[in-house]
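Quarterly update, task 2.4: adenosine-5'-triphosphate-bound model.
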Amino acid sequence: MQEKQKTDTSDYIIELRDVTKSFGNVNAVDGISFGVRPGEVVGLIGDNGAGKSTLIKILSGVHPPDSGQIIVRGDEVRHWNAARSRDAGIETVYQDRALAPQQTITRNIFMGREIKNRFGVIKVRTQYEEANRLMRDIGFTSKVFDPDSPVATLSGGERQGVAIARALYFDADLIVLDEPTTALSLVETAKVFGFVQNVRDRGRSIIFIGHNIYHVYDIADRFVVLDRGKVVMTADKAEIESAEVLMKHMQDIAEMAYAEAAEI
Amino acid sequence: MGLGAKPGGKQQRAREDASDLVKWARNNRRAITSTLFLIVMLIGFTLANPDVFTQFKTYRSVMIVLPVSMFLVVPLVFVVTAGEIDLSFPSVVGLASYAFATIVDQGGDPLIGIIAALLVGAALGYLNAILVVRIGLSALVATLGMNFFLRGLINIIVEGFSIAIPEIRGTFIHSLMTDDPIKIVDHLGIPNQMLWALAFTALGVFLYNRHSFGVRVHCVGDNPESAAEMGIDVNRTRTLVFVFTGIGAALAGIFSVMINFVWWPTTGDGLLLPVLAGIFVGGTPAWGGVGTVFGGTIGTSIVAFIETGVIAAGLTGFFTQFFYGLIIILSLIFQRFNGGRMR
Ligand SMILES: Nc1ncnc2c1ncn2[C@@H]1O[C@H](COP(=O)(O)OP(=O)(O)OP(=O)(O)O)[C@@H](O)[C@H]1O
Ligand SMILES: [Mg+2]
């Protein structure tokens, strides 16, 4: 019995309850409850400015919410921050890639989570070798750069590769991908989908934010649609027959928003 | 191929070694530039006045006071790399060494004086951090304000009086810090303060490149938003660089008083421009995210030798400032060849 009661909450890896966040007079996130279960791929969709990035930044500890609860594996956490979320097994590929361009690829991969001894001395050799292996794993075969090259010398797609590789390296339970395929070629996009498949096969969870509804439909098990800081729809894939149907829902939501705006 | 025509395997290895060297040179190009600049400058001075610049005592006279700047430039490279600036260090030198001089003057143990000075330096560094990191004031303006404020405080406290501490001579601490047991020629040796400053620089180089503190300083100065997103405590990192500078300033002040046997109400004042110039001349750019601690030390050495060189070349003291400016600008132009900010 007790077990059963507990599952409802501790079933989630992480859960947000009624969180809000505003910037000045913009209510970027306006009372959202949202959670991710082990092994599922959640597609988070919504128009520009709907609050998707803000929501996942609350989840990953970058923005403290103005109000609401954050529950990690059944326990409410206080003073949630980015370092703690990473310690809790959440890795995020941010929309801005979160790279330091003048630093080496190695430094970027281990930014904030260096391999070091207990005096804080970095194991430079180990980091270099790990970065080298990781780069080869994700298909960086270029002779032009190596783990010691500054990220500024990489192309947009390659930088994205570094950001994704970093998220994969730490073997997180939940990987958040905020528009990971923007500015990528078809081949590179397919590669990202390969990563997602791989992560899912290993029983990890993913939050996937994307503007291409077809992509999101293909990849996700569950859809969460945001509009102006609120969740306006959640649906399992079983409830939605095709990407076109999902697209139709999105259009309805946009029209509703448009009509509301016209009223005011 | 010319010289390297050897059996395949070895040739391959040779090429790899060469590329390692090229890589090393590329990664350290800013420090290499300033080092070459220092060497060329010294050669120039030697040609202008061989008598002076072939004598060890010329170098020794520079090595007596140069350490004071080295204790400052090392932490300041961290500050600039973190994307901040600290212009309050001359007065922190003054106030921290005032604590030291006062305690020794009152008959206290010099060791207690040193600890007190370090605490004052760290506390003032922390105060800077509160203004810049917590309250969010511009580092440039806030620390400039602190420089005036603290110097004003010194003047109010001492009303123009100096503190002489000749009694420090002969104490164990004083010999440990400023004697010169390593003799090079006749009775002239490398002063101990130079060895301490070199050790401090080595520690700085290590922290800067190999310790997670230094690496986080780089990331924060390069892109603070990214650093925060990856879980680096940006405010803590920024606070630590200011505290580190406060500690460096205290060490500079302690050595300055030990070397001169006197604390003046102006102690530290003359360091502002030469030390600042040393950072940039050494190859640390003003934009943050990259820099070189070793280069900073070279930069301060370049600045320190300018005055000696100008006088030795037979020019009057009137030329000193002119050459200061000329050499600083020239070296910055050379650093420019190392490229602008990469994005
Ligand atoms: N740091 C910030 N400061 C001020 N306003 C912000 C900040 N971050 C987000 N906002 C605002 O909050 C709202 C939601 O932004 P958010 O980035 O979460 O949207 P999004 O759904 O990710 O959009 P997109 O699809 O364009 O990435 C927008 O109106 C945005 O301007
Ligand atoms: Mg976004």
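Highlight for this quarter: Residues A 23, 26, 28, 46, 48-54, 95 surround adenosine-5'-triphosphate (ligand 1) (CB under 6 Å).
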